[in-house]
Design brief:
CATH topology of the largest domain: Neuraminidase
Structural class: mainly beta
Distance between the termini: 6 Å
Radius of gyration: 28 Å
Shape: elongated
Largest sheet: 5 strands, antiparallel
CATH class of the largest domain: Mainly Beta
Strand order of the largest sheet: 25-36-35-28-33
Number of strands: 36
Strand content: 35-45%
Number of domains: 2
CATH superfamily of the largest domain: Kelch-type beta propeller
Helix content: under 10%
Length: 406
């Protein structure tokens, strides 16, 4: 994936809202504008005053003049005062989960839905552990809310409108709070960026597809940060991320930059094709990629030739840009090698690069390194092994087509 810096005509400063900070904010759906709840307000006046958390519900609407109109609502019921709650718009209205009191204690694990007039607390059989500053996004294809992390957690939960369900992926992002999280209908995945752990602030990017987390190699990513905002820009058909902060005990840096998230198309793959021929030991060399290795930007995968005799052989790895034409001698592929005394053998790929790797073990491998260059995404290449035997004889393997992915 690639991050693209955006230079807007005007930039809103990150920092303190008069109504509070660490508020829960989500689109208000058909009612228009944004729904805002809670937040933390520092003390004012002589001596700093006493910090407090809020239980106010606001509707925020952008006016034609470019300003924001805040309207304080008066719902009959509402969640208790809190900061760091997570909220997102669903097909049933805005949904809120968790948060914490002014001192961080207690931490809440309750679930609330806004029906357009008031807040309704939802009772579910199970729920995530009480937490604050978790990342929450709404997957509009599967109609589920996805909740990740918060404080020291890296649990993944989904809410289907009735009940919470904990997911158990094979791997997960490290525990974190204040991460940016949003669903991309273009990618069909939720994208998570940054956040803060107990001792570090992250600048990594992950996707969640409903089954697995995948960490992405990020080109031009924003600097590590927490508390950034991310949403889907329907006009540009991209996710857009803005702001955030980087905290140290000495100071806090507030960011005012804006990025688009470009999820590059194309999945890395290796696909076998063609057939090999037997050598003097009647064994047909087998050519494949090492298990669970793919030609992904910035990684190394290994091409492996096996089914060789346990004796000295000289496999020659052939890499080519074509499986249809050999430019050096101007002939089409595949090409019958019977004329040089190798009956039943075929050249399947062009001979652009050859690397010999002698072996005594019946197998040999070649490391294939893919540089970090976005222009390589989608590039196809082809590979085959030519095997020379001692004291004489030769064979060729099947071939692979590789596609560089992200």
């Amino acid at each position: 994936m690639e991050w693209l810096v955006v230079t807007p005509s005007s930039v809103s400063s990150s920092g303190l809202l008069l109504v509070g900070r660490d508020v829960a904010l989500a689109s208000n759906g058909g009612a228009g504008g944004m729904l805002m709840f809670g937040g933390w307000r520092p003390g004012f006046g002589i001596g700093g005053g006493t910090p407090t958390v809020l239980d106010q519900t606001w509707n925020v609407v952008a006016t034609a003049g470019g300003s924001l109109q805040f309207t304080l609502l008066a719902p009959a019921t509402r969640p208790s005062a809190r900061q760091g709650a997570s909220m997102v718009l669903t097909n049933q209205g805005p949904l809120l989960f968790g948060g914490a009191a002014v001192s961080g204690v207690p931490v809440y694990g309750d679930t609330w839905r806004w029906n357009g007039t008031t807040w309704l607390q939802l009772t579910t059989p199970v729920a995530p552990a009480p937490t604050a500053y978790s990342a929450m996004a709404y997957d509009g294809a599967r109609n589920v809310v996805v909740l990740f992390g918060g404080f020291t957690s890296n649990e993944t939960w989904e809410f289907d409108g009735v009940a919470w369900h904990q997911r158990a992926p094979a791997q997960s992002p490290p525990p974190r709070a204040r991460a940016a999280f949003a669903w991309s209908p273009v990618a069909g995945k939720c994208v998570l960026f940054g956040g803060a752990g107990t001792t570090t602030q992250f600048g990594d990017t992950w996707t969640w597809d409903g089954t697995a987390w995948q960490q992405l190699l990020s080109l031009g990513a924003p600097s590590p940060r927490q508390g950034a905002a991310m949403t889907f820009d329907a006009a540009q058909q991209k996710l857009v991320l803005c702001g955030g902060s980087y905290y140290t005990p000495q100071s806090t840096t507030w960011y005012e930059d804006t990025y688009y998230v470009e999820l590059l198309a194309g999945q890395a793959s290796y696909t076998p094709f063609g057939a090999g021929c037997p050598g003097p030991t009647a064994q047909v060399p087998v050519f494949a990629a090492a298990a669970n290795e793919l030609p992904v930007l910035g990684t190394t995968s290994h091409l492996v030739v096996s089914n060789l005799p346990i004796a000295l052989t000289l496999p020659v790895f052939v890499l080519g840009t074509s499986n249809a034409w050999e430019p050096s001698s101007n002939h089409p592929l595949p090409f019958d090698l019977g004329f040089i005394g190798w009956p039943g053998c075929q050249q399947l790929v062009s001979h652009d690069l050859l690397t010999a790797v002698p072996t005594l073990t019946g197998t040999a491998s070649l490391a294939f390194v893919v540089p970090v260059n976005a222009a390589l995404v989608g590039l196809s290449f082809h590979s085959q092994a030519l095997v020379l035997y001692q004291p004489s004889g030769a064979a060729v393997s099947n071939a692979l087509t590789g596609v560089v992915g992200f």
